[in-house]
Amino acid sequence: MITIYSYGGDIPLETITEVCQQLNIEVECVDDVSLIHGDIALCHSMSEEQWQSIVSTASSGNVRVRMSTVGLAPTPQPILRLSGVIVLHLINIPDDLNESDWKVIFRNLTDASMINLFAEPYTMHEAKRFFFSVYPEFLLSFSILCQGYLATNSDSDYVAVKKALTKMGWDYFKDSDNHAAIIHADILNKKSETKKRSWWLEPFENISVDEISNKVHKEWDALESNIDYAAVGKLLTELEQETIKNPAIVANAYLAITARLEKE
């Protein structure tokens, strides 16, 4: 059962109700806070005081989602109250969300295994973007590592490498009077270091390649885009070997990651 409370305003109750029906989720809409009950409630409260009252009367394991017609700041951490209530802020203005968005939200709110992940700030899944400022830390890390590798392979003739270097701003960087001094003359001699698997894995401490691959894939899936994951997957497969010998693989992965993050 999902309870929707609203004191008024532009809350798309008809769309919400229709989506719940499509997902076979029982839903009730109420206009009195005393009628809010059950495991999950989305609430458009009229004041901070009323919202705190709504949360304080919830039971351990209940989920309370705050909505606003002007949007809200991302969900603060920690979101699991001492009382055991999971508290979320819907970042988006409810009326701006389409039917597909609501389906993602309700599928995850009603899935016990997914609800547990909301309390883990560094775990990605498709619904967290509606409640959190999601930072894909593993994708960002690989973007940086790719740039380091490509800098040491900047003499490569691969078209993909040249394209990636341009995307990095490498030509401007290496020729700039302001930055040239920090680029050592022997940077190309660092190839033997950056191609080693140990160099790529060092920032992740004791995390295995399989674990890293899983986390990268989850972050990728959590970002909305139609960009193919294959190039990134190929780089991660390469990391199962002792060395990465083909700079084009790294270049294509970097271009895919950058495109994906820019879409976000």
Short description:
With 264 residues, the chain is an alpha/beta fold. Helices cover 45% and strands 8% of the residues.
Description:
There is one protein chain. Helix 2 (48-56) links the parallel strand 3 and strand 4 (63-66). This protein is an alpha/beta fold and 264 residues long. It has a five-stranded parallel β-sheet, with helices on both faces. It contains twelve helices and five strands. The model has no long low-confidence stretch (mean pLDDT 85). The longest helix has 17 residues, at 247-263. Helix 11 crosses helix 12. It has helices at residues 13-22, 48-56, 99-109, 112-118, 137-152, 159-168, 170-175, 191-194, 197-201, 209-222, 230-238, 247-263, and strands at 2-6, 27-30, 40-44, 63-66, 86-89.
Total number of helical segments? 12
Low-confidence segments: none
* Strand numbers in spatial order across the main sheet: 2-1-3-4-5
**Series of H and E elements:** EHEEHEEHHHHHHHHHH
- The total count of strands amounts to 5
How is the biggest beta sheet arranged?
Answer: 5 strands, parallel
Q: Which shape, going by the Cα principal axes?
A: elongated
If you compute it from the alpha carbons, what radius of gyration comes out, rounded to the nearest whole angstrom? Answer: 23 Å
Helix percentage range = 40-55%
The percent range for strand residues is 5-15%
Mean pLDDT: 85
Termini, distance in Å? 32 Å
SS-based structural class?
Answer: alpha/beta
